[in-house]
Amino acid sequence: MSLVSIIIPVYNGEEYVHRAIECALSQTYPHKEVIVIDDASTDRTQEVVKKYPVIYHRNERNMERAYSRNKGVELSKGEFIFFLDHDDLWREDYIESVLKHLEDSQIVYSFPRSFINSEGNLLRVSRKKLPEDPLELVFSGMVGYPSATAFKRSAFLGYKDEYVMREDWEIFLRSCLEGLILKILDEDNVFIREHPKRTSRGKKFWIATYKVYEDYKDKVPEEYLPYFLFHVGETAMRFGELRFGWELCTGAIFKKPTLLANPRRLWSLLKRGFRFWRG
Question: For a designed S-S bond to 76, which of 5, 71, 203, 257 qualifies (C-beta 3.0 to 4.6 A apart)?
Answer without folding.
Answer: 5
